[in-house]
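2024-03-11 09:14:02 DEBUG pipeline.ingest accepted 1 chain
2024-03-11 09:14:02 DEBUG pipeline.ingest length=324
2024-03-11 09:14:03 DEBUG pipeline.predict start
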Amino acid sequence: MSEKPSNEKILEMLRSEPTEYVSGEALCEALRVSRSAIWKHIESLRSLGYTIEAFPHRGYRLVGCPDKLLSEELMWNLKTELIGRQVLSYDMVASTNDVAYDLGKKGAREGTVVVSEGQTKGKGRLGRSWVSPKGKGIYFSILLRPILPPQSIPKLTLLAALSVARAIRQITNLTPQIRWPNDLLLNGKKVSGILTEMSAEQDRVHFVVVGIGVNVNTTAEFLPKEGTSLKIETGSFISRIPLAQSLLEAFDTLYRDFKEGKTDEALEECRKLSAILGTHVTVEQVHGKKEGYAVDIDSEGALLLRFDDGVTERILSGDLVKLR
């Protein structure tokens, strides 16, 4: 027996016959392993939450899959060309961004996704934390290696926000608003946030990590007063796997267009979904706050802020802390 079967291969065979039993003999022959090895992998899959029936003389049948962000689930029928062709899933980490950043330094390939059921030190912008209760939300980070100067990267945050908006709309029929540059709102409350971090020199990017958090089935007890979740807004449990796959597929399309310089349509969609254009806002930056009228989002994803004296400034990054 030269090759051990993987959980992924067994799941693929079981899924190929959704209403029929797959015999132990067929699994052994296809994977070139013993029956005892097949049984061990079946038990391993059951321990992950898969419901697999075993019937004497007939074999195994996949009856149910867990609502867990497992690599086996996320990669099954994932329709992407680049994003998520490798998925590393964890039960609990301090921060998926930190894991992905370390992988970036070690040369992991572009499109690698790090996902976790929960985070003990989930990261938000400006040193804030992102509450990440286990099994309730989507917490993942995507490793990218665009051949671009650092000043082109802020647009990625906005495109990531758009991918979340598209996925939420597809799965729930809800239409979130985008609060530039990195928040998604439903009924004025935050349902998702994006944190983009990069390793770069002055003229080139080594890699970028795009961290995305979505409050899916998170209950009010875990959320700040300004937060909400898809379950709260819909009144129903939302399966995380199709939502996460939809998000990865949407981002895959947007990112490939981004690398080819084709972002005009995406940015126009961001403008239509904007929660701030046409309002007075306060943007908090490292060196202080700026208040003005949110005029537009330009071709690079920067916010155009017009002050009371009529002067307009391009804001590439910051944290929107107030609306009035």
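2024-03-11 09:14:41 DEBUG pipeline.report The first strand starts at residue 51 and ends at 55.
2024-03-11 09:14:41 DEBUG pipeline.predict end
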